[in-house]
From TrEMBL:
Organism of provenance: Nocardia fluminea
One GO term of the biological process aspect: thiamine biosynthetic process
Superkingdom classification of source: Bacteria
UniProt entry tagged with the keyword Ligase: no
Signal peptide coordinates: 1-26
Protein name listed in UniProt: ABC-type nitrate/sulfonate/bicarbonate transport system substrate-binding protein
Length: 389
């Protein structure tokens, strides 16, 4: 099953059209000068426990919602624009763990394949990011297991023009209006909105191409978006709009799906266990560092995108806004057990119980009796890692 484009692919072309700017061409591979790094202590050495290169498959292009992973990327990294990947030393607290980290772009870079399908096509992938419902949809044929999560809640939202629809205060008002809800093809949450009675089936319009052009021309409908991107982009970077949008997060109407879960293939869990025991706490600590101060990660993400002309522009201002939206919006934080990057298994089971029937009705092979323990594990989490706020 293919996943649709989720966000900014249309903004690059529109930015050129509206502002007259053009991106400069870049070499196929761009590298920073090699940097001699202090080795990490023995307990954080990954050589021998992990693959020589830990490969991470993103859902989309590099953005700060996968920021903690870029916090593990050490100096001297290489940007390979031809293959849409970034490679450098994997560091813990800035110290070399003895292995490399390779971060690969998703979305158009992998033909809009889902991350689970890409992980099964390419066995070199160590970790892949996913949403809960995509893991449920893949459970029958391409099962994955989440070992931690970068986000406690999803930034997915529906947005609208408050001037055109002044009576809309939230998603329920959109449903009552009967107006279209424009999303990209293959999204799974619109059927959930219908099943919940929040919108009607006939309102769903799966023709969104990720360009803002249609909304700018006729803002009478609701459109998908992410709270860490579109509110800033439409107000400050889409020059033909250049004003605020109204929006509500799906989580505020009962959507409980985890976003940016960090997964391994289920059939590789045993093989990767020695690696995960060391690596997962590093991801937790990188998440804590990002929440405390996202500045370094913002700089890295902006830099790697700037070095790849295939990717849509990602400004420093958007990076700062996106990080703060995640942090200040409470989308990063401890779970109900008080542990950062953890899972609430009761919540995961509710997600399965809600999305399972919806996905089966759509033709997905969701196993009968699928449980939270099939989708997530807390085995590798360090329960001492938590954040305040």
């Amino acid at each position: 099953m293919k996943t649709p484009p989720l966000r900014r692919i249309g903004f690059a072309a529109l930015a050129v059209l509206l502002t007259g700017t053009a991106s400069a061409c870049a070499d196929d591979t761009t590298a920073a000068p090699a940097v001699a790094l202090e080795p990490a202590p023995a307990e954080q050495q990954l050589a021998g426990a992990c693959p020589a290169t830990v490969v991470v498959q993103l859902q989309w292009a590099p953005e700060t919602d996968s920021g903690p992973l870029f916090g593990l990327l050490g100096p001297g990294y290489t940007v390979d624009a031809d293959n849409n990947k970034i490679t450098g030393p994997l560091v813990a607290d800035g110290k070399d763990t003895g292995v490399r980290l390779e971060i690969r772009a998703g979305g158009p870079a992998i033909g809009f394949q889902t991350v689970p399908s890409q992980m099964y096509v390419d066995p070199s992938i160590t970790l892949g990011l996913a949403h809960s419902e995509h893991a449920i949809a893949a459970a029958g044929q391409q099962p994955i297991v989440a070992v931690t999560t970068l986000l406690r809640n999803s930034p997915q939202m529906l947005m609208w023009d408050p001037k055109t629809n002044p009576d809309w205060q939230g998603i329920a008002d959109i449903g009552k209006s009967g107006k279209p809800v424009v999303v990209s093809k293959g999204q799974l949450y619109p059927d959930w909105l219908v099943a919940r009675g929040l919108v009607r089936k006939e309102q769903i319009d799966a023709s969104y191409d990720n360009s803002p052009s249609r909304f700018v021309t006729d803002p009478s409908f609701a459109q998908q978006g992410f709270a860490n991107a579109e509110p800033f982009t439409y107000e400050h970077e889409v020059r033909a709009w250049n004003k605020p949008v109204g929006y509500q997060l799906l989580k505020d109407v009962g959507y409980e799906g985890y976003a940016r879960t960090v997964n391994v293939r289920a059939d590789k869990l045993a093989e990767l266990r020695p690696c995960l025991r060391k690596l997962v706490p590093m991801i937790q600590r990188a998440t804590a560092s990002f929440k405390a101060d996202p500045g370094h990660v913002n700089d890295v993400v902006v830099d790697v995108v700037e070095q790849n002309p295939k990717l849509s522009p990602y400004s420093a201002e958007l990076a700062e806004f996106g990080s703060r939206a995640l942090i200040d919006g409470g989308l990063i934080g401890n779970d109900t057990d008080g542990v950062l990057g953890s899972f609430d298994e009761t919540r995961v089971q509710r997600i399965i119980d809600e999305f399972g029937p919806i996905l089966r009705a759509g033709g997905a092979n969701v196993p009968t009796g699928l449980t939270a323990k099939d989708l997530v594990t807390k085995e590798f989490l360090d329960p001492a890692i938590s954040v305040t706020g």
